[in-house]
Write a structure and sequence with these properties.
The complex is a heterotrimer of chains A (about 140), B (about 110) and C (about 500). Chain A is mainly alpha-helical and about 140 residues long. Chain A has 5 helices and 2 strands. Chain A has one domain. Chain C has one domain. The chains are: A mainly alpha (about 140), B mainly alpha (about 110), C mainly alpha (about 500). Chains in contact: A-B, A-C, B-C. At the B-C interface, helix 2 and helix 3 of B face helix 6 and helix 7 of C. Chain B: It is found in: Cell membrane.
Chain lengths: ~140, ~110, ~500
């Protein structure tokens, strides 16, 4: 079934970028301020769900041919991977590290392995959120 | 403030109990969601409401507020998010296959 | 610091996720999951031996020293249970390969079994009570999925109730945690023990401990087992066996930990309540087992009797009784898993679950029949099988402490267990065969192997009790003297 809702479609075309940008912003700001992987992932995930609601499943699937169960799996792998990586450096499990790097154009930046962990969390949240919504809506 | 919070928690638990004891599946799930909200507030209140500064050593001399309850609540929120989501999908499936969302009708026969 | 400690939790999780990507490669999924469980088993055996030589091990996550950070603690008790759980899961996987069916395997059956074992191992190993909650939830979420997997009418209906009850139980866990944190301001189990001892376990703390008792009783099926018979009879056989072997045992582990380490001071209140609950559980379980007409009901009520019997050991609380409880815990995990596999196989062969409608199975399946006979004897506690040592030691402890009622109840329950299983054995295995030799379905090879391996381990736990004694004695000693545990964590 195709819904032909002009207002929703027009609004979503503009709003979706704001939502996704906000999601990414929340994800990165999580390091020193409120935000982080879980909240960023939730916002990104709800943006995707909005896309699924506005356009139908097939259209979105054509442009984004991901299996969201696997996205969640990838997230868990990233998170556990960053946690278990410390074992190989003889540091306690879950240890994280950070350094300051100087990049050619960007200047000095603060890089941490926590970001990898948080990326895993975000992907897991996106994956589960979309999977849950899809598993309810798919069987019509 | 603490007593006000406790009253609020009490009301939430009372409402949630009422919802959980009803026969409709969606009401029960809403009830469990409310229950988890109530317990999150309880952890926050019992752990001590904000008394001092943000617990960052470089920024103030103290006394600091205990940050642990918030970490606990965040974890509990994530878990209750997962459980509630699963419960919703399960309830939907059960409704589809069993054709009823009334728990009285979902009792099942002992001899089937 | 010993990073090996986290592997029984993290390896199953990582493999489970890898298996998600291998959705369509069933053979590969089987091989990987089996190798993983084998590896975890070997690893936990090595860890158990390290604990013997080096004492209690601990791993502070990301280097936060206790009592501030989350930590994993391995003492003999935890490691024995991790080892037994891993052995049970490995053997159950063998059974699953030949019986679970393609549909389940494609629906992420193996990943969820691995998630379940990760949660179980995490619950045994953690030294932080909030982390215990989290591991419980990992285990429970996996169990929700496993119980509903397949999506039949009955399964969905029962799983909905199972999930709801566990959600409410988890809520009560959080309430208890909130009040505990409010009173003692710490979540590290060893640190809680110190703070409780300093405060002298006043009535408020005792109330909190009773809240924990209710929560863990719901999970363990101690008195609050009303949810258990319904939900344990709907999933596929392997899942039933895993649940019967692992889920209630995690609740029992939590009860033993809570009341030997954290709240051991008001024994005349808490342990009396546990004793009464254990007694009533045994009586109710016996009634259920006697009145049950189908094999599933009888088997599930046997689980409940087992729970009551182990907790007699905790209620009595002497070192002998505790040693017996640990022995019995090992035995119960192995024997209950085997019992459920056998019962499931009976249903698979005959398509019937009512005892009276089956007959003469032993003619067609002699080995199968005699294995059932052995597990029956083991559950009744007949030497030299695994149940005997535990029963004797718990009985000895009960005599030392003078709790004769519990003693009588415990040993009367053995007779009931024997009777209820003997009824299945006489009615279903002996007598005229209803199926002719040509018509009889063959039992899959993998299933036979799992039966045989379980039987070997049951006989080993019984005959080789002496060789296990080193570990079990050490575990009981740590449980009886919480200061060993506390010193290992807070000093050093």
């Amino acid at each position: 079934m195709k819904i032909n809702d002009v207002i929703l479609r027009t609004v979503v075309k503009g709003v979706i970028f704001i939502i996704l940008t906000l999601g990414v912003y929340l994800f990165f700001s999580g390091h020193n301020a409120p935000g982080g992987g879980f909240i960023g992932g939730l916002v990104l995930g709800s943006g995707l769900v909005l896309l699924y609601i506005t356009y139908d499943l097939e259209t979105v699937h054509k442009k984004m041919p991901f299996d969201f169960k696997k996205v969640a799996g990838l997230g868990v792998l990233l998170a556990t991977g960053s946690a278990i990586g410390s074992i190989f450096f003889d540091a306690p499990f879950l240890s994280q590290t950070d350094t300051y790097f100087t990049f050619p154009i960007l200047g000095e930046k603060h890089l941490t392995t926590v970001t990898v962990f948080e990326a895993g969390v975000a992907l897991t949240v996106i994956g589960t959120l979309v999977t849950i919504i899809l598993s309810i809506s798919e069987d019509e | 403030m603490e007593s006000l919070m406790m009253i609020l928690i009490g009301i939430l638990v009372a409402v949630a109990t009422y919802l959980v004891l009803s026969r409709n599946m969606i009401r029960i799930i809403l009830g469990t969601a409310l229950l988890s909200h109530a317990v999150h507030l309880l952890i926050l209140t019992v752990g001590g409401l904000k008394k001092g500064d943000v617990p960052l050593l470089s920024q103030s001399e103290g006394p600091f507020t205990d940050a642990l309850p918030q970490a606990l609540i965040l974890t509990a929120i994530v878990i209750s998010f997962a459980t509630t989501a699963f419960l919703l999908v399960l309830a939907y499936r059960t409704y589809k296959t069993n054709g009823s969302d009334d728990l009285q009708e979902l009792r099942g026969m002992p001899d089937e | 610091m010993n990073n090996l400690l986290v592997l029984p939790l993290i390896i199953p999780i990582i493999t489970a996720v890898v298996l998600v990507f291998l959705k369509d490669h069933i053979v590969l999924q089987r091989i990987i999951s089996f190798i993983t469980m084998l590896f975890v088993t070997v690893l936990s055996f090595i860890l158990l031996n390290i604990v013997q030589t080096e004492g209690i091990l601990r791993l502070d996550f990301s280097g936060w020293l206790p009592p501030f950070g989350i930590l994993f603690v391995a003492d003999s008790f935890a490691m024995i249970l991790v080892l037994t759980a891993s052995v049970v899961t490995t053997i159950c996987l063998l059974y699953a390969f030949s019986t679970i069916g393609n549909r389940h395997e494609k629906m992420f059956f193996y990943p969820f079994v691995l998630f379940l074992i990760a949660g179980v191992n995490g619950s045994f190993l953690t030294g932080d009570i909030f982390n215990l909650f989290v591991c419980f939830e990992v285990m429970l979420l996996a169990s929700y999925v496993l119980i509903a997997l397949g999506g039949e009418k009955r399964q969905l209906r029962e799983s909905l109730k199972y999930v709801l009850i566990n959600v409410v139980a988890s809520w009560m866990f959080l309430v208890a945690l909130a009040f505990l944190y409010g009173t003692v301001k710490t979540l590290n189990m060893a640190h809680i023990a110190v703070r409780v001892a300093e405060a002298g376990q006043d009535p408020l703390l005792t109330t909190v401990s009773i809240l924990f008792l209710i929560v863990f009783s719901l999970k363990a099926g101690l008195l609050l087992f009303f949810w258990l018979p319904g939900s344990y009879s709907v999933p596929p056989t392997v899942v039933q066996a895993l649940f019967a072997a692992l889920l209630t045992k995690v609740g029992i582990y939590a009860l033993i930990r809570t009341f030997t380490l954290m709240f051991p001071l008001q024994q005349d209140v808490t342990h009396t309540i546990i004793g009464i609950m254990a007694g009533v559980t045994i009586i109710a379980g016996c009634m259920g087992a006697l009145s049950g007409r189908d094999i599933y009901t009888i088997a599930t009520y046997n689980v409940i009797i087992g729970v009551g019997f182990i907790l007699i050991g905790l209620a009595v609380g002497t070192e002998t009784a505790m040693t017996g409880a640990i022995y019995y815990l090992i035995h119960d995990m192995l024997a209950k898993a085997l019992l459920f596999l056998l019962v499931g196989m009976m249903f698979y062969i005959t398509g019937e679950s009512v005892v009276k409608k089956m007959s003469g199975l032993i003619k067609n399946y002699p080995i199968f029949g005699w294995i059932f006979f052995i597990v029956m004897l083991a559950l009744a506690g007949i030497p030299p099988l695994s149940g005997f040592v535990g029963k004797v030691l718990i009985g000895q402890g009960a005599i030392e402490a003078g709790s004769y009622i519990l003693l009588a109840l415990g040993f009367a329950s053995s007779i009931i267990v024997l009777y209820s299983l003997l009824r299945i054995f006489l009615a279903s295995f002996f007598g005229e065969t209803t199926i002719s030799l040509e018509d009889s379905k063959p039992i899959p090879k993998g299933a036979y192997w799992s039966f045989i391996l379980f039987t070997i381990s049951i006989v080993f736990v019984g005959m080789g009790a002496e060789s296990l004694a080193v570990y079990v004695k050490d575990a009981a000693e740590t449980l009886m003297n919480p200061s060993i545990y506390i010193d290992a964590i807070l000093k050093g």
